[in-house]
Amino acid sequence: MVSITFDNDSDVIQYNTAQISDSDQIVSLNLLWVNAFEKGNFQKGFVRYAFSRDEIISLIKANEVVVARNDFTVVGYYLINSLFEKEIGRIRRKTAELQIAAGTLPGARYVYQCQAAVHPDYQNKGIGKMLLSTLKRQVQSQFDIIISGINKDNEYAKSAHLKSGWVIVCDNGGEYLVYTKTGQ
User: Fold this and answer.
1) What pLDDT was estimated at residue 112?
2) Is residue 8 very low, low, confident or very high in pLDDT (cuts 50, 70, 90)?
3) Nearest to 58 by CA among 81, 86, 77, 88
4) How far apart are the C-alpha atoms of 168 and 183, rounded to whole Å?
5) Of residues 81, 181, 61, 167, the one with CA closest to residue 132
């Protein structure tokens, strides 16, 4: 577990592995950002895939979710998803395989689906970056790189990913295929 205190000394954020007891809060935060996507409210970011509570619990049991907490409230999460392949995941996997074959993406143990969300009241405080760092440490024994996609309409996510060390591999239609190394 890692803890940091914000400049105003009122918020202590703890970063650690998600627990099953966090699942309802993770689903609520996930739905907040899915709703932003559905309403076309892209200013602060969005996510496209709504996870069910059962899927979140399965990912937690697989040790694929980390959370940021302020006291007992989950204010952010970062997850990888090696369990549930949706259509966008199949497209990313095929693109990743082509990019590895072409030499533009490192050939390594990889996972190609991930998602991050931080509550709007806690954005721009480094929480997403710390969540990513926590997730990388947690999964580096399983995966060398994490591959994801950033929707071209999500400038907020693109900026946040690039600041956190993600590398754009290619333009994949409506999204950029990106990756980051776990051992960093």
Assistant:
1) 81
2) very low
3) 81
4) 18
5) 181
